[in-house]
Amino acid sequence: MAARRRHADVRAEPLLVRVLLLGIALAFIAVFVVLPLVSVFVEAFRRGIEPYIAALIEPTALDAIKLTLTVAVIAVPTNLVFGVAAAWAITKFEFPGKSVLTTLIDLPFSVSPVIAGLIYMLLFGLQGWLGPWLSEHDFKIMFAIPGIVLATMFVTFPFVARELIPLMQEQGTDDEEAALALGASGWQTFRRVTLPNIRWGLLYGVLLCNARAMGEFGAVSVVSGHIRGETNTIPLHIEILYNEYNFVASFAVASLLAFLALLTLLGKAILEWNTPAPARPTSR
Amino acid sequence: MTIELKGIGKTFRTAVALHDIDLAVAKGELIALLGPSGSGKTTLLRIIAGLEWPDTGTLHIDGEDAIGQSVRDRHIGFVFQHYALFRHMTVAENIAFGLRVQRRGKRPPEAEIKARVANLLTLVQIGDLGARYPHQISGGQRQRVALARALAIEPSLLLLDEPFGALDAKVRKELRRWLRHLHEQLGMTTLFVTHDQEEALELADRVVVMGKGRIEQIGTPEAVYANPANAFVYDFLGEANRIPVEVVAGKLKLPGIIVDKLDGQHIETGKATLFVRPHDVSAIRAGDGSATVRTVSLAGPVAALEITLTDGTTVDVEQAHHLHDADRLKPGDTVSLRFRRAALFGV
Predict the structure, then answer these.
(1) Which ipTM score applies to this complex?
(2) Bridge partners of residue B25, in order along the sequence
(3) Are A177 and B86 an interchain contact pair (Cβ–Cβ within 8 Å)?
(4) pTM recorded for the entire structure
(5) Does A106 touch chain B (CB under 8 A)?
(6) With an 8 Å Cβ cutoff, are A177 and B71 in contact?
(7) Radius of gyration over every alpha carbon of chain A, rounded to an integer in angstroms
(8) Which residues in B121-141 are b (16+ Cβ under 10 Å) and which e?
(9) A204-227 tens-digit pLDDT
(10) What is the spatial distance between Cα B234 and Cα B222, in angstroms, rounded to a whole number?
């Protein structure tokens, strides 16, 4: 009897420890994650539903939403293609400088977004290296949509590649070699074998990439110039409203981004639920 | 389909994988590439398939230079060690893959593809599994699917990388017999890679023994087993006792041991190693014998004895039970040894 009890004790911590651990974890999540999220929605609806909707359909807000969607529509597919190409190159081929490329892909994660914005400023700004030439030929990059797209692409570049590299490394090259040996062309191999093998990881990477592309603040803030109705994305619009003490409007627009984050999480949960264990995307 | 390799060499960044390989395979042969891991056997197979390129040498398939051809153009059936089945396709879709990716003009109509897949499923004896996914079937069944998929493109050359490596012993034996029958039925030239000597000796028409990137010996299973060309092959094929000996003026110095037949190198003088198979050793009870019985194990098809020589070398001996029963050797008994057949190689 005594032996049996000790056996049970090994597997189950004392009640006190369990309650304490669970309590700490729940309290932490409540204070740092749930509370801010709830407060966004509470603040947004403080004066009821009408001011909330008014804040969203106001012309500058609509312009910001439109711009953010435009940026995402350009940046996400571009990074999808580049991410797949980079992951493909790194995992399926041997070439000199491979480790350098792998490290470079991580660069946007390790560099502060503000620095990323400043790099583009140095390159394309009026005082920058290419700025004078660009303004002579009437190309507008800084304080315009191209600059915002570039900065967003830089910041969101790693998401797709980072998601795919471990997955493709684990899957190896056997499937591709088998397809080629059976007479498939390079494109057929990619389309019929590689793509189906990585589809869930790819989708997850795109979801994360999209969430960040829409939510990016630092880099975009540097290159945008904050021209209302022209170069304001959703996050920049929120900041301006907040600085003008227009709390309801700012939280109303912020709730859009929060809603997007929740959708991303939901998408992720569905993906993980749908994916067989070995091919499941790694959680970040 | 014939294969001819001449002077094939391959170096990976760190090590020489293949060194000056010459090999000719006749039409319809079943060849085993046998060697320990790192012997270069898989690299050689992949070079023939077109999945790897040699640094030097020539490769002719059916008399045609194949080095310039991609894996796609060589039209060779290749079965991967871990099968490499497409996990998102059903068994039937996997088998049909090689037909469905053919160019529009060459691609058979869908009805014919269906019929050929059905035929292949019957041929590999998994007729009712077509609608399953690879993760829903057993290892042996996956192996059959991989084989059917490779056969679908009607290759005249079939290459298999460790075809039974990932299977348990019983399934392995059964599949091996079946593959031999299939080979005879289809008449294809077949090469397979294995590290299992039993598999190579049982299955192949000829065995290519490889070690450290070189071909050590080529021959029929009987020939390589009975007459190993060197110490490596002797050691690798079957059980072998290694006894360090000294040769003086062409004569073996081995007190108290009679050697009936001696193969291998002729060594005039110096140190050498004598190889003898456990079943070629007889232990005879002798009061003045120079060897001592250490252990006797009677479980199994033969009586296994461990015998120590005066210099401490251990010799494994296998005797038929009825011979052992006549003598009943026990641990501690002194015996004299007779090697019915042994081979001498330089150290």
Answers:
(1) 0.84
(2) B3
(3) no
(4) 0.80
(5) no
(6) yes
(7) 24
(8) bebbebeebbeebbeebebbb
(9) 999 999 999 999 999 999 998 888
(10) 13
